[in-house]
Design goal:
The protein has 100 residues and is an alpha+beta fold. The chain contains 3 helices and 4 strands; from the N terminus they run E-H-E-H-E-H-E.
């Protein structure tokens, strides 16, 4: 197994603390770039994407998107720790509607 830091931050992003899931996705959209050497090594290969902490999943989702666009086969993702959800997920994609 080879461990590689395949992504770099290509533009400045805001601190994620205090941002909700939608704001985190917007903050990270287009923020990552695949390092040239990693692109050459990983294109067409299956990889496991690893992140340190899962809060909303925005970082993993954007990282996986950028890698896939570069031709990397992201097979799975793993995290070391996850934050506790402060309230139940409500809204689009959760199966429930937000109360009025």
């Amino acid at each position: 197994m080879t461990v590689r830091s395949a992504l770099a931050v290509g533009r400045r992003v805001a601190d994620q603390a205090g941002l909700d899931a939608r704001a985190r996705r917007a903050n990270l959209a287009g923020a990552f770039v695949v390092r040239v050497r990693s692109r050459d090594l990983l294109t067409g290969r299956a990889v496991l994407l690893v992140d340190d902490v899962l809060t909303t999943g925005a970082t993993l989702a954007e990282a996986a998107r950028v890698l896939r666009v570069a031709g990397v086969n992201v097979r799975a993702a793993a995290v070391v720790a996850a934050t506790r959800r402060r309230r139940p997920a409500i809204g689009p994609g959760s199966g429930e509607d937000r109360p009025s």
